[in-house]
Design goal:
Elements: H1 2-20, H2 32-54, H3 56-66, H4 75-94, H5 102-108, H6 116-119, E1 127-129, H7 139-150, E2 158-160, H8 166-175, H9 177-180, E3 184-196, E4 199-209, E5 217-224, E6 236-248, E7 253-265, E8 273-275
Parallel strand pairs: 1-5, 2-3, 4-8, 5-7
Antiparallel strand pairs: 3-4, 3-6, 4-5, 6-7
InterPro entries: DUF1980, DUF1980_C, DUF1980_N, UPF0703_membrane_permease
Protein name: TIGR03943 family protein
Domain DUF1980: 2-110, 136-276
Length: 278
């Protein structure tokens, strides 16, 4: 009976995340089919466990006469197994989802790896500025993929950045900045103002998920807004401008930026995440 309740709980949790829209904050929406598969298997296995439980007396007699018990016979073994199975349900049900905003950036700061040695363990670090999918490929395959992706945009003199292509465009800009300098760009994001060494820097960011929340991060570009424009953190803007390279003193290097020609305040989207398409 306990197994039935746990498995049915998985089915109900997946359905709740799907119906409530909270699923988008955990995994890349392009992998939604995996959730439907999980729901189906959880329901199927729950029904199997219900049938086994209903005929448990007959099953126990069979086990006794057969002389073998292939399950977990000791109480502490069963307790540990059930605890491990229940834990994701407890976390998914009781722990609230967190709305990401600039307070996350302020708490962690952000970094931009300048060499392989500075990256450390990519599975343990939140990504910032540049979406980096190279950790999922060997160097040759990654370079081939980037070169193939570059063909989609290299002839465009203006980049229309959307929710669908946001992460791949940002990755290309950081990988091949010189190829994009001088091109026009338009995109939406929320404002983050960094104050370093008495110098103010404005960024326009989106929170993104590459595969799942474990490799999520905050991605975007430094922006040079018009002098007469006043902005505040978490304010959503639509900007248009020209891609340039500017020296960012905290990193001691040049990074891609946008010389903004026009900027308008916009409403925050219903789903503030963007996802990497593969």
């Amino acid at each position: 009976m306990i197994r039935f309740l746990i498995l049915s709980g998985y089915f109900e949790l997946m359905m709740y995340l799907q119906v409530s829209g909270k699923l988008d904050q955990y995994i890349n929406v392009h992998y939604r089919y995996l959730i439907f598969l999980t729901m189906f298997l959880s329901l199927l296995l729950a029904l199997v466990q219900l049938k086994i439980w209903a005929g448990s007396e007959k099953h126990q007699e069979h086990t006794h006469h057969d002389g073998h018990d292939h399950g977990l016979t000791k109480p502490y073994q069963r307790a540990i197994a059930y605890l491990l199975l229940v834990l994701p349900l407890v976390v998914g049900t009781l722990f609230p989802t967190i709305s990401l905003d600039t307070t996350i950036v302020e708490a962690k700061g952000f970094s931009f790896p300048v060499s392989k040695e500075s990256v450390g363990d990519p599975e343990m670090n939140t990504q910032y500025l540049k979406p980096d999918t190279s950790i999922y490929y060997n160097k040759s395959d990654y370079n081939d993929q980037m070169a193939q992706l570059m063909k989609k945009y290299e002839a465009d003199q203006k980049l229309e950045v959307t929710d669908e292509n946001y992460l791949e465009v940002m990755e290309l800009i950081y990988n091949y900045p010189n190829s994009f300098v001088g091109k026009k760009i338009s995109f939406n994001g929320f404002v983050y103002e960094a104050n370093k060494n008495n110098q103010k820097y404005d960024f326009l960011f989106r929170f993104g998920i590459i595969h799942c929340v474990a490799d999520s991060g905050v991605f975007g570009l430094m922006t040079k807004l018009p002098d007469n424009m006043t902005v505040k953190n978490n304010q959503w803007l639509h900007v248009e401008g020209t891609i340039t390279l500017d020296f960012f003193e905290p990193f001691d290097r040049q990074i891609p930026s946008v010389e903004v020609s026009s900027a308008q305040t916009v409403d925050a989207p219903k789903n503030q995440y963007v996802y990497r398409a593969f």
